[in-house]
Amino acid sequence: RAQIYDFIVKELGEAVPDLAEEQDASTYGKLNKWAGKAILANVYLNAEVYTGTPRWEECMAQCDDIIREQKCDLSPDYKDPFRASGVEGSKEVMFTIVYDYSRGITGNYLFMNSWHSELQKKYLLNAAPNMAGGPKGITQFIDTYQEGDTRLEDSWLMGQQFDAEGNSLYGVYDMAGEPLVFTKELPDGNFTSEMAGYRMNKYEVATGSEWSCDTDIPLIRYSEVLLMKAECLLRTDKAGAGALVTQVRQRNFKNNPDKATVTDEELKENSTYQWGYVENYSITEPGDRTPVKFGRLFDELCWEFAWEGHTRRDMIRFGLFTEKSWLSHKPMGDYRSVFPIPESTLIANPELTQNPDYTSGN
Fold this sequence. Notes:
The protein is built from 14 helices and nine strands. The model has no long low-confidence stretch (mean pLDDT about 95). α4 crosses α9. By secondary structure, it is mainly α. A hairpin with a 2-residue loop joins β7 and β8. A three-stranded mixed beta sheet has the order 8-7-9, with no helix packed on it. A two-stranded antiparallel ribbon has the order 1-6. The protein has a two-stranded antiparallel sheet with strand order 2-5. Among the domains are: about 1-80 and about 90-95 and about 220-270, Alpha Horseshoe (Serine Threonine Protein Phosphatase 5, Tetratricopeptide repeat), CATH 1.25.40; about 335-360, no CATH class.
């Protein structure tokens, strides 16, 4: 892991100075200087996990370079980076996966996995989503959202659902004939009814979308730069993290701006996540309840980046992934913070050996 880390740092260090500095449509979907620095900052942010040596100062230096140049900025609205169109000139989206039906480049199918099939009638899709839907919001996480935080509704589809003309939609599976209402509570992670659990609402899905949509998926946003610096300030016992997090929160509390403010000391508090193993809607085994260091900042990361693929990496960095219990998950060994090498890859390359503690049985 240390060798791979060194290689990535070296490659980025050599490449970044030659990358374009424009942050506009001309560099959209391409790696410009600021995206390169943000990737390098993230590698430094997780350096202690990869190599055993923290690199907080190095991470901050990259973030400071990006902030100082003022080429990037937060969008006025949290939803702006996730629109189906018109994102190309974004100052917030620093690097993205580009999808475009007109060029045959499609692949954002998060809605297809999360949505109920009847939502085809709400969004006028040309294909029905995956039956009752799969990925859903874990109740324990949904309960952490603060009152008035618009990221809850901006990220999650909840409550009663209607078709495009305003008519009620109804269940068609285990709750056939009942009004389609997405509820917050999950009994566990093994079986849920067709209406249990909030669904994906972060990425806009255009009318006429089929098995996937051409809404781009941002990989790096400017809010991540601000929050990376905030984390480094906390971990090096320097002031200023609260101001950066407040800056990210302000657009999500427009109706109650006082609630957007958070202090350095508040970010050092424990996470509000109610950890524990869930059976029949209740936590039956609390598991490890050790307070999370900088837990409030961890919560902020989860609220800001829901549906963006950050949480596993963040949980490992905060020491949670192989320690805590949630929904139907219990700790199953520290070695699981590293993925196993696929069997097909091991067969194709006899020089490789499986990562420690993995066998064909687990």
